[in-house]
């Protein structure tokens, strides 16, 4: 699975309030959340992001409250992957729950600048900065996680498995 797009680069400790300000938490509509994503730190983000763009950040991305709105707003805005030096644990988990790919790669995150062309290969973990002609290596996703991401997260992944009858087999053999 390849993701190609423009870089949106941010620094360390971007918290969930910066990703989606608390004043917009009365909705869970992805499109409404996307229209306000990052607005307090980057007014150009919501109107400038395109499907497949890559958000890069420093240490502890997604820190703060455990709101699930933050990765949802990023995904709905069109971001195809988030690459950071490190993630707040709850943000990392919430992102994967909805099928938003997140990769830890400090060197790629620190090098990138907004506007550069990026390519991310989730199968190999390769993160290429096409503008600078550099490549960085993150831990690749195992096939199971690639399937979960392709499905759109845990709920859709489980729904598909249920529809395929994968959970209807008896564990006792009767």
Q: Count every beta strand, where a strand is a DSSP E run of 2 or more residues.
A: 7
* Strand order of the biggest β-sheet: 4-3-2-1-5-6-7
Give the end-to-end Cα distance, rounded to a whole number of Å: 40 Å
Global outline: globular
Q: Count every helix, treating DSSP H or I runs of 4 or more residues as helices.
A: 8
User: Are there runs of 5+ residues with pLDDT below 50, and where?
Assistant: none
Note the main sheet.
7 strands, mixed
Structural class: alpha/beta
Helix content: 25-40%
**Second CATH tier, the architecture:** Alpha-Beta Barrel
* % residues in beta strands: 15-25%
Mean pLDDT: 93
Q: For this structure, what is the CATH homologous superfamily?
A: Aconitase, domain 4
Number of domains: 1
CATH class: Alpha Beta
CATH topology: Aconitase, domain 4
Elements, N to C (H/E): EHHHEHEHEHEEEHH
Describe the model.
- The chain has eight helices and seven strands; from the N terminus they run βαααβαβαβαβββαα.
- Helix content is 32%, strand content 18%.
- The model has no long low-confidence stretch (mean pLDDT 93).
- Helix 7 packs across helix 8.
- It has a seven-stranded mixed β-sheet with strand order 4-3-2-1-5-6-7.
